[in-house]
Amino acid sequence: MGTQTDEPLYARVMRRPRTCSALETLLAMGFPRSRALKALVSTAEKGVEEACEWLFSHLSDPSLDAPLPREFVLYLCPSGPLEENLMDFWRSCPSNPALAIPPHITLCQFFPCPDEAVSPLLSSLGTLAERLQPSFPQALSLRLVTAAAFLGLFVRDDQADVLRSLAGEFTTTATGIADVQVEPHRKQLHLTLAYQLQSTERAQAERLARCLDPSLPAAWHLRLYSRDLRYAGQETQRVLYSYYPQNDDELELIPGDFIFISPGNSTEDISKSCEWIRMKFCGQPISCSEGWLAGVSHLSGLSGFFPENYTERAHEAATWLLHRSYPMCEEIEGREMVKRKGDMAVAPPIPPHSFNGQTGDLQLHLTVIRHGERVDVTFGRHWLARNLDSNGTYIPKDLNLPPFLPVRPAGHRAQQLDPPLTRVGQLQAQLTGEAMRDKRVPVDAVFCSPALRCVQTAHYIIKGLGLVGLTPCVEPGLFEWMHWLRGVGSGGTSSASGPGEAGGSGGAEGSSGVLLSHPWMGAADLAAAGLPVDESYRPLISPPSLSPCESYEDFIKRIDCTARELMALCRAQGFHSVLFIGHAASLEACTRPLRRLPPRPQREFVINVRKVPYLGLCSIRELSSGSSRSWALVSPPIPPLSHGPNPTFSWSQVLCDP
């Protein structure tokens, strides 16, 4: 007989396995140690799955095995009402380079840290934050300081000494861990509001800065960021649209990726960019064409040429990684809490006529939004015929088609001329409204184009906002450029149309090029379809006054006059925050004249219009009052809405072919 013990037999046999770290798991999967470390650091140590995705996407990266450490920096960042106040200021100064990085006080300079030293660095920072938290000031005192091309909030001297002590301890520790000299920030500690201001911008920025309230409560966090030192400060493009390479020297574009290019954007600079890519990666001559840039993908590390109009300008800081964030003071008490319904956060109702607490000269705020996904662009100009049975009854044959069509006196012809949204388009609009609600964006009035897709978009945005009782005002003056409707009814497609604005819509005119009729639904028909509109509103422009022979200049003038009259009407009514729901062309046509800029050349305008996706939006804010009013574009209050294509699936063609 064996010796009896108090420990059960299964416990002695089945020992609980030790939990493996992410690094150990990657090594057990067969990845080299250097690559595993690089993947973990490049994904902010989020986990094994993210590191594997990074490794698989960088398998062809020529710099994958290069011993290139990332650069790190330590910031002290506010959250809460102060941060919101600062973000409102930055949205009013869109050309300000400071808005590329979240509000912060710099505690040390950028320093390189080898991949194997990142984990000990994070541990030491956490220990330091926990030890110094009790002595950290509960409220930092900030004062506004202005200079020729700089605006900032400076920390009171005695509190700055506490922050310098914290920064000194961190840099001493980091110097020992990273084996490099880490320098603390030696200038006066401050939070930068704006810099590199032009003389024409300084007065406006300073006026806005004096409206800030630095005494607002804030919870301060120590945040450690990192960046790829190879591309620090380099010109960066954000990918908007997918592009699959047609040649070996081209770069695949994936929406959301960032492309680092060599500095400059002139023909000479682009040629230098080509030479940079050739020398660094290709080893052979490369030619460069107008409209193409050469760069390196942040997502894959691959290099090549790509079409510039598939991207937009971005700041290199958008590619930075946040590794850790440690609270240095108690979270703010007494703030209005977000109510929860199930697992979804629901913001409190938006107070009427509120304007994010802004004071001073700020007046009207206008947001212009393109409508959602339209049926005819998604399913083709014959979408209706394909979904009618032999009796002419509409029976949708795709889940993305609307389950029913509104009753229209003109019958099916009107459905072709004035197509509705898809169900995805309805969801796009409602998601936009919900995002605005969650960000507590105030909305006092909504004006929309008479096109059914715009009325529907306005309806679902208002539904997402949760504003019971608010109905849109239908204004024909906001309709798209009438020129884009010419020739479509006879089967043609305007080459000048924006993405989905006229091409394939079924048309609105006959072969003679004369507009047959305005097929828009009246208020009674819209109400019967569950789309109530403000019947007391009297449009500025009547539908018969819209000519199919409208020139580009007349279109810009019509939209500008309509926008100005509507804003004057809102000002008289005491409204502050207004939505326009229109078309792809509406974003520029409504805002560019308000900024006192001449119209772009027609060809350039058309190219810009084609870059506006469904539910693309922009915001513009009035900056002065009285007889002299100026307007400036500001950052939209909500992020963009992106999703991939999903073509029609035919199971019989895919699965039944021999």
Automatic annotation (TrEMBL):
Name of the featured protein: Ubiquitin associated and SH3 domain containing B
Cellular location(s): Cytoplasm
Keyword Transferase attached: no
InterPro entries tied to this protein: His_Pase_superF_clade-1, His_PPase_superfam, Phosphatase_SH3-domain, SH3-like_dom_sf, SH3_domain, UBA, UBA-like_sf
Domain SH3: 232-316
GO cellular component entries: cytoplasm
Alphabetical list of SUPFAM superfamilies matching this protein: Phosphoglycerate mutase-like, SH3-domain, UBA-like
Organism, as annotated: Eptatretus burgeri
Keyword Cytoplasm included in the entry's annotation: yes
CDD domains named among the record's database cross-references: HP_PGM_like
Domain of life: Eukaryota
Residues in UBA domain copies: 4-58
Pfam families per UniProt: His_Phos_1, UBA_7
Keyword annotations: Cytoplasm, SH3 domain
